């Protein structure tokens, strides 16, 4: 007998999955304790579905059937169930069979598979999810093929098999369709799996942001508290769906003008979204009530979870398990809330009241409520609105990855802004970000890069430089501060992408123009000489100059600088109108305005199109309770203003932007109080535009005819046979043999335990030679004097040997070796390492202490294309040394690129290779030489990104 507490129970097969309609289900192995659940499940299946499963009328399961379907050895017979609320909604099983189709054991590698899905849950993608998971289980148990017999009329199940993307065969035998599926993942099956993942996760977020009805649980009768604040914001924003208030002590039909009930069950109508604002110890009861009522998703504002310590973290894990058991998704806990400004939704289930002008084209995701307040305030203050906003708090379930899936095909979002403290799953994030960035900009600011001890948000093990490199490779615009996040977002939301790096500068201050020119050079742009219009310039002069610049084929972007006029001259709104007219006359190039002590210009720019009223700037203030009730991070306690008193955010703030006539935000000209900020935004837009253009030719992973992939696999299998689970470092001979199978030749070295041995080695290799130490503390440290080069005679070699021994220690400690000299060139370092979070990473830099000290190393994800390799060697700051710096001869960079590509192929083809270091690699004017190599191998780590779809476990 096998139960969930049995040691043989495969707990690692348990998983939560998102279904096609955005709901969730739990997949787990079936145990002997599931007999009652199985019988109950079968009773709810229609006679037609039973007929399709058993090819005959089968009204009920016999005791023998129940025993067979609940007793498994989890090797040759496996059954999985999809559950919601602890009850079965679907099952799948396989039985291993032999060549004749009869029950068999290993090494038979084929199994018969069959599904049964409850009619009420058909069409939700349950069978597809189960097929992915049962397929992964089968591969783990050595099964390579599935066989299935399906009645021709069972078109839904046939479609499940045919759409999965596996290699398959189809035949018609004895009145049934027989399908055979090869379970080895293919590019097509992976593409199908990821497309399903995107649709399901996007739909799950859409259900949270576009509900037809919302219940706020924890609304106080006094009108104070977090729940009442969230309710007022939902009501005052004009939510288009049904709105309910829930308070277990409610004695009136209305709370704050909204229909009130004691429990969710009393509502008597469907509830799509519940906003939970009760103390943490009462949240489980609220979740249970929501789950039993069929609520689709939760926003939990309540604090007291992972941010409060180990006990809170355990409470958070239990919350996630409970929420998912009912098929719901969760934003939070400790969340600030969600906003959707779509005109047919107008949802504000957050603690931030938003004005009517908050609608825009920017999507905003934050993990921090406090940062969310700052970003909302900054965007609205500068006249930009949002399409959607999610402040996920502790990010226990819904994460930035889910929001990216939603934004990818959300027509209301043109720019995605994200403030992240952790990446969670960097491999998945970079994959999703790359796909999203191909159609719309993704701008990321990261906090928590240097996590203090005891901080609730765990830091990543990846070096920050590596994280930044990988994000940029995925097309993500990486910024350092929330101010830069807003600056860049404003430009991208309102302006077209530049066609190149050439920037025209014009304005009425020569000094400000020079500052802008210098900032452009610092950011790698190509500025044109600034055009000084003099302080006497009129708005007409600005319009003419800007129109000329935009019409010129010699520039790709324009920065307009403006300082106050001396005396009374043209008002700011005239200048804003002139700039707007010039842009309208010559669209297609981005324009940014730099203003110094011209707040009136910023205000006029925002009101020129009549989209924002000219009022004093205000910041968003989170609505807060009159007295403390439920603790919610980021919601400071304050007094609720008297009725009729306008809240600060009810007044549209003054903005730093201008809009052409039409949709708010379309063609908006962003304004900045400093030249450096405007130029930084343009520079990021230039780099992003270049990345977008590069997608048209992403490059190829080249094939090399001399690569011996099968031989490398055989060698690795032999090396790891009987090895422990911990990684091993190959000796020099094995490392050289493995690398040579991929065309990477390592220059041989001969040991020199004494001077006579060194002389014999030199004779074997041929003079001139190098003598160097290989002791760990001296390895690759030429600066410590452990290397002697260009030794041409036996006398020189013996002298050098004695000098090393006298200076650094005994030969037994130094472990000296002799190596043939190679042509002089530039010393470089090529490495690859498997990071558990990001996957295989290829790195390149110059050898030596200066590069290590400055962190001058570039990184790319594996597998690298030929374009990746070319970009990799050119992206380090010391790259000019490779291309003829100060009159030196350029080195053979094509040979270096080929080395990088060969190493990339090795670690991609063989996940057992978890680390390779080639140091130094001497790149000469013709060819290169690998002088030393270190290779580490281990049993292949589990590739979670290639497995079945699953939510992060808790």
Describe the structure.
This protein has 954 residues and is α/β, with parallel strands linked by helices. It is 33% helix and 22% strand. The chain contains 27 helices and 40 strands. Strands 1-2-3-4-5-6-8-7 form an eight-stranded mixed sheet, sandwiched between helices. Strands 11-12-10-9-13-14-15 form a seven-stranded mixed sheet, sandwiched between helices. Strand 18 (359-366), helix 10 (369-381) and strand 19 (386-391) form a beta-alpha-beta unit. Helix 14 (482-494) crosses helix 19 and helix 26 packs across helix 27 (893-909). The radius of gyration is 33 Å and the shape is flat. 47% of the residues are buried. Residues 451-459, 608-621 and 623-665 have low confidence and may be disordered.
Largest beta sheet, briefly? 8 strands, mixed
Alpha plus pi helix count: 27
Helical residues, percent = 25-40%
Mean pLDDT, nearest integer?
Answer: 87
Task: Describe the strand arrangement of the main beta sheet, using strand numbers.
Answer: 1-2-3-4-5-6-8-7
Q: Ranges with pLDDT <50 over ≥5 residues?
A: 451-459, 608-621, 623-665
Rg, nearest Å: 33 Å
Shape: flat
Distance between the first and last residues' Cα: 27 Å
Helix/sheet category: alpha/beta
Tell how many strands the DSSP assignment holds: 40
Task: Tell me the fraction of residues in β-strands, as a range.
Answer: 15-25%
Please name the defining characteristics of this protein.
single chain, eight-stranded mixed sheet, 27 helices, 33% helix, flat, seven-stranded mixed sheet, 954 residues, alpha/beta
């Amino acid at each position: 007998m096998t139960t969930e507490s049995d040691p043989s129970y495969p707990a690692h097969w348990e998983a939560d999955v998102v279904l096609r309609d955005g709901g969730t289900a739990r997949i787990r192995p079936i145990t002997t304790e599931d007999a009652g659940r199985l019988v109950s499940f079968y009773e709810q299946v229609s006679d037609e579905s039973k007929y399709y499963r058993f090819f005959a009328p089968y009204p009920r399961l016999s005791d023998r059937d129940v025993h067979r379907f609940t007793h498994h050895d989890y090797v040759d017979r496996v059954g999985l169930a999809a559950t919601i609320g602890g009850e079965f909604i679907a099952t799948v099983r396989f039985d291993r069979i032999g060549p004749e189709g009869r029950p068999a054991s290993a090494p038979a590698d084929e199994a018969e598979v069959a599904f049964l899905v409850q009619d009420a849950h058909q069409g939700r993608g349950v069978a597809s999810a189960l097929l992915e998971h049962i397929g992964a289980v089968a591969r783990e148990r050595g099964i390579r093929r599935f066989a299935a017999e399906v009645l021709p009329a069972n078109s839904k199940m046939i479609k499940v098999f045919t759409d999965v993307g596996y290699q398959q065969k189809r035949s018609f035998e004895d009145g049934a369709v027989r399908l055979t599926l090869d379970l080895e993942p293919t590019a097509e099956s992976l593409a199908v799996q990821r497309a399903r993942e995107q649709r399901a996760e996007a739909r799950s977020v859409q259900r949270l942001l576009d509900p037809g009805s919302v219940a706020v649980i924890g609304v106080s009768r006094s009108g104070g508290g977090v729940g009442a604040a969230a309710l007022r914001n939902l009501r005052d924003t004009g939510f288009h769906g049904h709105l309910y208030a829930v308070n277990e002590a409610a004695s009136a039909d209305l709370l704050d003008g909204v229909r009130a009930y004691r429990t969710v069950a009393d509502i008597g109508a469907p509830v799509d979204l519940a906003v939970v604002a009760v103390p943490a110890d009462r949240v489980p009861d609220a979740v249970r009530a929501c789950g039993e009522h069929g609520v689709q998703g939760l926003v939990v504002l309540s604090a007291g979870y992972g941010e409060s310590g180990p006990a809170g973290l355990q409470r958070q894990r239990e919350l996630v398990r409970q929420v998912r058991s009912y098929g719901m998704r969760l934003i939070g806990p400790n969340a600030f809330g969600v906003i959707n400004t779509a005109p047919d939704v107008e949802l504000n289930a957050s603690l931030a009241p938003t004005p009517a002008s908050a609608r825009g084209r920017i999507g905003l995701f934050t993990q921090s409520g406090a940062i969310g307040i700052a970003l909302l305030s900054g965007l609205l203050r500068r006249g930009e609105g949002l399409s959607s906003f999610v402040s996920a708090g502790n990010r226990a379930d819904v994460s930035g990855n889910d929001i990216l899936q939603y934004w990818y095909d959300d027509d209301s979002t043109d720019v995605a802004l994200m403030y992240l403290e952790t990446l969670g799953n960097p491999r998945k994030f970079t994959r999703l970000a790359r796909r999203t960035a191909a159609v719309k900009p993704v701008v990321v600011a990261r906090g928590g890069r240097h996590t203090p001890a005891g901080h609730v948000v765990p830091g990543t093990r990846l070096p920050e430089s590596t994280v930044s490199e990988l994000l940029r490779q995925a097309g993500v615009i990486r910024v350092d501060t929330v101010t830069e996040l807003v600056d860049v977002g404003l430009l991208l939301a309102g302006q077209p992408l530049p066609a190149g790096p050439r920037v025209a500068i014009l304005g009425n201050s020569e000094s400000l123009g020079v500052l802008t020119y210098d900032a452009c050079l610092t950011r790698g742009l190509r500025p044109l000489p600034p055009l000084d219009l003099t302080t006497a310039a009129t708005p007409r002069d600005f319009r003419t100059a800007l129109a000329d610049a935009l019409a010129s084929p010699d520039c790709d972007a324009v920065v307009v600088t403006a300082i106050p006029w001396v005396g009374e001259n043209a008002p700011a709104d005239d200048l804003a109108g002139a700039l707007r007219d010039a842009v309208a006359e010559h669209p297609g190039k981005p324009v940014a305005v730099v203003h110094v002590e011209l707040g009136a210009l910023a205000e006029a720019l925002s009101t020129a199109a009549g989209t924002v009223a000219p009022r004093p700037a205000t910041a968003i203030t989170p609505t807060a309770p009159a007295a403390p009730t439920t603790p919610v991070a980021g919601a400071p306690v304050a007094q609720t203003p008297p009725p009729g008193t306008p809240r600060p955010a009810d007044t549209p703030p003054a903005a730093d932007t201008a809009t052409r006539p039409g949709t708010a935000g379309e063609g908006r000209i962003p304004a900045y109080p400093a030249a450096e900020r405007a130029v930084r935004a343009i520079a990021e837009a230039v780099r992003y535009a270049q990345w977008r253009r590069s997608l048209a030719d992403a490059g190829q992973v080249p094939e090399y005819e001399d690569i011996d992939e099968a031989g490398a696999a055989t060698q690795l299998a032999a090396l790891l046979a009987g090895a422990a689970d911990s990684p091993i470092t190959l000796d020099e001979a094995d490392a050289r043999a493995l690398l040579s199978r991929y065309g990477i030749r390592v220059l041989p070295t001969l040991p020199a335990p004494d001077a006579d041995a060194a002389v014999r080695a030199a004779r074997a290799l041929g003079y001139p030679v190098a003598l160097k130490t290989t002791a760990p503390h001296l390895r690759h440290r030429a600066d410590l004097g452990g290397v002697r080069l260009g030794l041409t005679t036996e006398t020189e070699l013996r002298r050098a040997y004695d000098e090393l021994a006298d200076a650094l220690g005994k030969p037994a400690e130094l472990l000296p070796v002799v190596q043939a000299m190679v042509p002089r060139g530039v010393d470089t370092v090529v490495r690859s390492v498997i990071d558990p979070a990001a996957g295989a990473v290829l790195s390149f830099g110059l050898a030596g202490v200066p590069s290590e000290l400055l962190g001058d190393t570039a990184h790319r994800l594996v597998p690298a294309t030929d374009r990746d390799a070319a970009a990799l060697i050119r992206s380090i700051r010391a790259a000019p040394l490779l291309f003829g710096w100060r009159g030196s001869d350029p080195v053979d960079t094509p040979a270096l690129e080929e080395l990088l590509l060969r190493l990339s192929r090795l670690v991609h083809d063989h996940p057992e290779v978890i680390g390779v270091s080639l140091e130094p690699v001497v790149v000469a004017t013709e060819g290169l030489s690998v002088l030393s190599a270190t290779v580490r191998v281990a049993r292949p780590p589990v590739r979670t990104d290639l497995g079945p779809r699953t939510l992060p476990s808790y």
